[in-house]
Amino acid sequence: MGIIHIIDVAVYIITAISVFYVFVFSLSSVIRGGVKYRNATKKMRFLVLIPSYKDDNVIKDSVNSVLACDYPGDKLLTVVISDKMEDTTNEWLLDQPITLFTINPQKSSKAYALNFAIENLEDKNFDIVVILDSDNIIEKEFFNEINNAFYSGSTAVQTHRTAKNIKGDIAILDAISEEINNSIFRKGHVNMGLSSALIGSGMAFSYKWFTKNVTKLSTAGEDKELELLLLKEGVYIDYLDHVPVYDEKTRNKEVFYNQRRRWLAAQFGSLFSGIKELPGAILSGKIDYIDKLFQWTLLPRVVTLGLIFIFAVFTSLYDWRLSIKWWLSFMLLTLSFAMATPDHLVTKDSIKAIKRVPLLFVLMAFNMFRLKGVNKKFIHTIKGE
Fold first, then answer.
1. What is the pLDDT of residues 174-187, one digit of tens each?
2. Which residue of 99, 271, 280, 363 has the smallest Cβ count within 10 Å?
């Protein structure tokens, strides 16, 4: 067997595993809708944490959406952790019925902000912690729906984060990517009895569990760290597909690039951190933990798609018989993405935006080689651009 055939087989096996994984959970996501819990007979007490780093242009809308929710005021405390925001913004926040912490750490991070809030709050009487980003917008029933889930026994919940703006090719592709993630790694997983992935905001946890574990967060990928901690304990992460959290999508390809670079670094950093617990997870039958580590070994979807297309074209020119399996993989992966994409995102603009996919492939491919040290750095995603 020649070197070309060896490379062909090796890369095909690697990409085929990713394609099969994505297809199975994409198919699962369209089988049935998410679970809705019965209305709770008790209103639990919420602590809402909103870390905000230089996000003066979006934090007001986020706070207003929380304050407008249909939930008893005495059962809800909103805390904004303001890191290097303008004085005028902080003054506005002080006028709102919330708690404001202003911080100015030498090394900013979301983990630092969350820990600071938990340590410095005098009020410790809460049932549920909700983490929102400073650009998130929620609907009036948001806390009622989470309350229903926790009243029914949930310990950790991820809500449905979705785009609040779809303007420009990069923002459209970002929105589609997030919904594909929601279908595969959240709805598809939960439909098969596996834990949902977390996404960094729109997350809710038992207050008791969160306060015990928040001090263990140390990287820029705090959501991945939280996943490992939960799954290590065997805690199931639920997904509320019907509860939206609207999130700002960037139109700037440089911001998109840096954001994905941070996410990739967090993914591989968490993989290397969690791999030492794999033998124990296998022996104790922690399927969610095993699945999560396996999930983090997979190549980014756009990289997988790009590799398959490149090999399909190359083998078509070299030996068409070798290309058959590649074109079949390409069609199966494309079908998986189609199943995982909501109908409302299939528009003329989104079809036009597909022309930017090769650019995203190049950016993500470069990201794979520029991850060293990123997981320990704070890379700010500029909001409202």
1. 899 999 999 999 99
2. 280
